[in-house]
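Let us work through a complete example step by step.
Step 1: write down the sequence.
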Amino acid sequence: MKQRRSHSSSSMVRFAFFVLTLLVASCAPSATEAPGEIPAPTEEWVEVDLKLGPGPLDFTEMQTGLDGLSSYVATLTIKFDGTESGSPAQWSSTYVMQRTAQPAAWQWTAEHEGRSPSEFLAQRNGMLYAFDVNVACVGGMLDSENPYPRPEPVDQLAGVLGAETGEHQTVNGVEADGYAFDERALAQADLTDSNGELWLATDGGYLVRYFVTTVADERFFGQGSSGKMTWDYELTDVNAELAFPLPEDCPAGLVDAPSLPDAANVVDMPGQLEYDSTTSVADALAFYEEQLPALGWGPPVIEGIEGEEGIEIPQLTPEEQAMMEQLFGTQPAAEETAPSRAYGRGDEILTLFIEQVEGTTHVALYVDRDIE
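Step 2: predict the structure and record it as tokens.
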């Protein structure tokens, strides 16, 4: 949707508002209505005059351009100082969204001073993570057909209609065009006393900076509430390399790695991907040696040992082998086995096992959090 549009220089613009008029319960029901039944809402259109900003910029689609960025950190701090429900109140909330496109991942946090507890949401490797009521990290598999909506801090900002052109400058490392606005551009004329500025990236049109201060009474903040509120939003680390490790108690996610095209008997669950294939052991290993680095899985770091080609995992001792046979029975001997490899990415370790048993190649990949 195109964001920059000019409108009439007149500050009085006629808008039609859709109003739902609910008939109150005290109205007598008609002959077709059951006693005590609330009549259905009726619709009517009314026209009102609103004072809008005199400038050329309309910007209301607040997420414009964000999906085109490879990474960013979005931070919004909201502060209030005044009264709420007739009592003195002073609080602040800070919302932070960190996001990367490859690998596809985001992490959202909310810290509240003088209000509710901290909040946390994250999405990566096919999992959604959150704090539960005990402030412990829990995870659940995502529904690919109904993805969880990304909670962008920018969605808490009010769009503007008629912001005035300001200066062009570099903001948070991005070339941006500035605009100024007041309560008119917020459709709050005669309701608040507001002053704000915003900057849009010259290339991409996304919001880089937004700041507004609003002073109002209960007509805006609600019954018994009045004071000053500020919204301070910044977009930083645009297209930069980002790493945002999950909290230490979060469970592993789905394995971010592909399967061979002929994969059968697939087991795909948090931290584990296993399947059978008719592909040779050598070809399966070559497949992953090509695919894993492309997904960001780099040289492993396990017990301080680093390697460019992965590392070989020690084989079971005779005592360990005997214990495994006692627990799971004697398993057919592997006819061919590739050296086990482990690869690192951020705070995760992916271990790859490939072996051929009775003519079938079995591939197993496991992901664990590398928590020191």
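Step 3: interpret the result. Residues 1-36, 301-312 have pLDDT under 50 and may be disordered.
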